[in-house]
Amino acid sequence: MKRMLAVLLLVGATLAQPAKPATCPQAEPLGISLEKTDGFPKELTSEVRAKTVDELLATIWLRYVDPKFGGKDWEKVTASYKAKALEAKNERAFYDALRGLVAELDGGESAFVSSTQIAASQASASPTFTGVGMLVMQSAAREGLTVQWVVPGGPADQAGLRPRDLILAVNGQPCPSTDKIRGPAGTNVTLTVKSPGKPPREITIQRGRINFPSSLVEARRLEADPSVGYVWIGALTGDDFPNVFSKALASIASGNNAVKSLILDLRSGSGAGIGLMEVVMGHFMGGARYSLEGPEVTVRRTIQPRTPNLDQMPLVVLVDQDTSGSATMAAAILQKRPKTVVIGQTTKTGGKLFRTHELPDGSALLLAEAKLVLADGGSLKDDRVTPAVTIGQDWTQSPEAEDPYLKAALEALGRLR
């Protein structure tokens, strides 16, 4: 099940990408291009298809977080999509019908992932692959791919790519995508790159074999004020995340030379499930309580304290319009913590518990089954976190020294101390 969840996170990230500007077509979710359009594969018999549809519908009816389905006539909706699925002439049409049905629930939070997509993501999810070694993100605000992180010593790092660089084209072609950047080891790829405040330039990188960590955490002292620690979480994923995160915090927040305050950067952060979110909370809010409540789920949780214990440390949490999933949930709980300010932009939705259900054909349903209820009994408006201090600028277009979020964070920490 852990492997299935990791696959869903990878595919779900592709499904949930914001629409790119109209000049670039929306990237096709991973694996859909492999779904057959000339009939069904041998193993997807009419009996298997019927069982898959029936189990999908029953799971949604029984377990979906909103029993009123947002005011929709759910019987009518399901009847329409069920007919499309059972009358489908090929695999692509069958899965498109099921994807369409699940998209009716909450606009893309819950997700249907076909067996073909899962197989494709498993093939590409190995921690070792060939490419240039960087993590990128898309934003609805602008075209291109923004570099979030580069593998130290990897091809991208050696070529001079840095976080916040914007990739505008691959081999001279606009509408860059990760599949265009990846390729066999030893081959070259030329990227058109724009760093904040500088004109575009071309960088040619030789692809190589990349060892990509399963957990992305960075901890360091802030250059503008070394008494302030800065911690970035790429995503709340990875079996080794608890150990990696704790060690990262300890490196700057323990001992005689520990930082005096901390910035936790959850911008564009994501994740699913509550376990790793509680790892983060355990360092800042040990003993805090929250609940997750749904038609078939009632979970009451007490966050277990973790070392280093930073309950009393002044804290700023950074979020933006791309913060989602467990990162949004973490920000919501931390917002109730004393000596804490949340700064940035209203997040994506994330105040829900999702669970994975495997279906008879090998596909899976990632379904929202419960909503976050805070210790005071309150819940998130529209399942989003609204920061106490709002920043209107796009942080990715500024070098770190001019980052409006970090400037606001330092001002807020000055008041919290």
List keywords for this structure.
19 strands, six-stranded antiparallel beta sheet, six-stranded mixed beta sheet, globular, 417 residues, disordered N terminus
Task: Describe the secondary structure blueprint for this structure.
Blueprint: H1 2-15, H2 46-63, H3 74-87, H4 91-106, E1 111-113, H5 115-124, E2 128-131, E3 134-139, E4 142-150, H6 155-158, E5 166-170, E6 173-174, H7 178-181, E7 188-194, E8 201-206, E9 208-211, E10 217-222, E11 225-233, H8 241-253, E12 261-265, H9 275-284, E13 289-293, E14 298-302, E15 315-319, H10 325-334, E16 340-344, E17 352-358, E18 364-374, E19 389-390, H11 404-416
Parallel strand pairs: 11-12, 12-15, 15-16, 16-19
Antiparallel strand pairs: 1-18, 2-9, 3-4, 4-5, 5-6, 5-7, 7-8, 10-11, 13-14, 13-18, 17-18
How would you describe what is shown here?
The protein is α+β, with helices and mostly antiparallel strands. It contains 11 helices and 19 strands. It has helices at 2-15, 46-63, 74-87, 91-106, 115-124, 155-158, 178-181, 241-253, 275-284, 325-334, 404-416, and strands at 111-113, 128-131, 134-139, 142-150, 166-170, 173-174, 188-194, 201-206, 208-211, 217-222, 225-233, 261-265, 289-293, 298-302, 315-319, 340-344, 352-358, 364-374, 389-390. Strand 3 (134-139) and strand 4 form a beta hairpin. The longest helix is centred in the N-terminal third of the chain and has 18 residues, at 46-63. The chain is globular, with a radius of gyration of 22 Å.
